[in-house]
Amino acid sequence: MNLLNKTNISFCFICIYLANCQPQLGEIRRRDLNLESIEDILNHDIQFLEEKSGLCTYSTKTNFLNCFGVNETFGCGAISRMNNLKNVSLELTNLKIVENNFTLDLIEKDTNFTFVIPKNKRKIVVSIKNIDDFQEPGIYIKNDDCWSNILSFIHNITQVNFKLFLFL
Questions:
Q1: Cα-Cα end-to-end distance for the chain
Q2: pLDDT by position in tens, the chain (length 168)
Q3: What's the whole-model pTM score?
Q4: Helix ranges (DSSP H) in the chain
């Protein structure tokens, strides 16, 4: 299954590289991967899904949100609304989806935020919603049917792991 275009990209794991930002202690060093490698990682994760677990992914390179479950797989076109985020390149693989009124927040497990910008220590929460009124960074799902599929998916799955790939 070809989930992503086969284009070489460069990004880092769990590390945010901003202009004039130096890697900090505990960060994993930057390395080059290509989208084919990311596809292999995702295909491996999909093979080991349990009956009531799921996996969703979003990349600003493809502007597509994909969700995979044992009995259901779908994808939605999405629009990146990463307001005020520039020169950010990261991969987060340990996110959970938390329902918050009319939005779905992507939260790092054991925290209340998605990631922290090292330069100013600002905590960022990335959200998914189908209303285009973003004040904070987020992912806009314009299609109502896709939005309904996402909500149904997270309500029917006990545990949904979310992988977020940002290349801004």
A1: 26
A2: 333 333 322 222 222 333 333 333 333 333 344 445 445 545 555 555 555 678 899 999 999 999 988 778 899 999 999 988 888 888 898 899 999 988 999 999 889 999 998 888 889 999 999 999 998 899 999 999 999 999 999 998 888 889 999 888
A3: 0.70
A4: 35-47, 144-156
Using CA atoms, how far residue 128 sits from 70, 78, 105, 164, in Å, is: 23, 9, 6, 12
> What is the rounded CA–CA span in Å between residue 71 and residue 61?
27
How far is the CA of 8 from the CAs of 5, 11, 20, 76, in angstroms?
Answer: 9, 10, 24, 23
| Count of CB atoms situated within 10 Å of the CB of 121 | 7
Q: How far is CA 78 from CA 100, 102, 167, in A?
A: 19, 17, 15
Classified as helix, coil or strand, 123 is: strand
